[in-house]
Amino acid sequence: MNDVIALSEDQRDALQELMNISMGQAANSLAHLIETKIGISIPNITAVTPTGLYELVSHNQQSYYTRQSFMGDIHGEVMSILTQSGLEEVAELLEYEQPLSDNDIKETILELSNILAGACLAGLSEQLELATNLQMPTLFAPQKSDFSQYDWQHSLVMEVKFDIQVSSFTMRVVFCLDDASLTKLKSTIDELLG
Amino acid sequence: MNEPLLDKLPVGICLVNESYEIVYLNAFFLDRMPSDLREVALGKPLADVFPEQIKFLKRRIKSVFVLKHPSFSYWEQRPHIFPFKSSRPITGEETQMVQNMEIVPHKDSETQQQYACILIQDVTAQASYFKAQTQLAEQLKEEHEAQRKLIRKLDRAQSQLIQAEKMASTGQLAAGIAHEINNPMGFVTANLNTLEQYAQNLLETCEATKKLFASHAPERLEDLEALFEATHVELIEEDMGALLQESKDGLDRVSEIVSTLRSFAEEPQHAWSYLNLQETASQLVQLISTQFKKPKYKVSCQPEQLKWYCETASFKQALTNLMMNAAQSIEDSGLVMLDIKQTQSGVAIKIVDTGCGIKETNLKRVFEPFFTTRPEGKGQGLGLSVAYSAIEKHKGKLVINSREGKGTVIEVRLPRLQEDDDTTANESASTAPSESL
């Protein structure tokens, strides 16, 4: 493993705790917006290679994918994996009218990704006192991308799973940071740890 | 806010307060609004000014107020949020502006008031470029598919052509050879018959001489017998019959080969007429089963007593050859099935056997004349090529599927031919009632 992404146990624990708090806030905001209960998993922090990332995001065939980049004090991308099942119920919660058109489905996917990824990032940035800006989300097809061509060897990913409890819908949000941002993140965590 | 600067931005800005009222519009936004709304928009509820998309806008603005982070809308899903005209009223192809929207939360640092800032980006040019690209890609894909189909068709046509060419040239060669062999065969056969007669006469003469000696000069009989023994007359008598029979059998085989060659090569002047396929099939199975007793035979014909217009002799020859092959492929026990079915456009004949099958490497060559896997003297390798050319004459198709050790399926598809079809026009269509084997 690359030195840059090797987190000490303390750093990892701190990051996990920060993620936990910000994810909780994200879930709360969404729950408030669509007036329903939302469950979250314990954030999973791992180091991956490009193929590892592919496996992480693409093990479910029946999914929609989006990606969204963020800039500011830290740079990176968020990938969201949304199950196809249960999406219609969620769209209804977002006040879309049935039956859903193809564009309604796409808009729901993009909107959900933006809300959750945005809430996660906002929470994390706030905890770490870093300024970030989230860009527009776009649909993404990992099957069509060649992960092995990516220009990096290792990356740190933070993964969290949301369940919307009225339906079978689940969504995973995966944060990937570039090397410089990772260094920045580590030093920020170190400052917090004192 | 630095308003003159905001008026220069190539982005539409609309600021909405928590009661969804418009509190600011920049020049980009104002310029593109219908003129009657321009004067009155400020201070009005968003719902009054832009009623069409208000449900969507309110939902998004609410999410921005609640979540305190931006919301996006992309032109592909929702191209015309605000009823803005295209920025090129003269030369543009689009009449309405295609928009990307971003709503960001904004907090006034003095009043601590919350606002939602709607940012509109004109992406008409990108969108129409993207659409053109997509259309082009679609078109390319279609053309590519069409070309691939064409290439496949060409490939098929080429291999058919090669096959036909092979058959034609070997056919001519075979006809020539058949003719050349027939001439010597004629006199060899005739001479052999004469020789047989001569030999018989000679032997009879020997026998008569012996009798003559016995009655008229018994004292010299011993000498004569000694002479006969010295010239092996007895042995000659014993052996000659077998030798002659073997030679005749050999000649028969040669003439059989020659006639098969000719039936394969030459255009036979046989008659076209209606053939009762069911009757033909059962008779054929009867004939073959006397020769090949090991397999079980099964015949089916739908509809029963189906009559088919064909060139009867070559058609029967083809069926016979295919069935013979199937029967021969079974070594110990197995099944040979002949299934005839009328289809919408013609007739489908299936010959299935559970015999030894054909090696994949040989499958390509089975229609080649003289190609055989049987031991020398057991097969001429003409059966399938004769069948092939007969089926071709009926404008039909012959397809072989085989797996070594499992069996073979041969499918013959024949189109319905009419008495006045081109293929049959110059043949004198027989008026004889349907015949069979």
Automatic annotation (TrEMBL), chain A:
GO molecular function, one term: hydrolase activity
High-level lineage: Bacteria, Pseudomonadati, Pseudomonadota, Gammaproteobacteria, Alteromonadales
Stretches assigned to the CheC-like protein domain: 11-44
One Pfam family hit: CheC
Keywords linked to the UniProt accession: Chemotaxis
InterPro entries for this protein: CheC (IPR007597), CheC-like_sf (IPR028976), FliN/MopA/SpaO (IPR051469)
Full protein name: Chemotaxis protein CheC
GO terms of biological process kind: chemotaxis
UniProtKB/TrEMBL annotation, chain B:
Biased composition (Polar residues): 425-437
Domain of life: Bacteria
EC assignment: 2.7.13.3
Keywords per UniProt: Coiled coil, Kinase, Phosphoprotein, Transferase
Coiled coil segments of this chain: 137-167
GO molecular function, one term: phosphorelay sensor kinase activity
InterPro entries: HATPase_C_sf, HATPase_dom, His_kinase_dom, HisK_dim/P_dom, HisK_dim/P_sf, PAS-like_dom_sf, Sig_transdc_His_kin-like_C
Known catalytic reactions: ATP + protein L-histidine = ADP + protein N-phospho-L-histidine
CDD domains xref list: HisKA (cd00082)
Pfam entry (one): HATPase_c
Region (Disordered): 415-437
Histidine kinase domain sequence ranges: 176-418
Protein name: histidine kinase
Organism expressing this protein natively: Alteromonas lipolytica
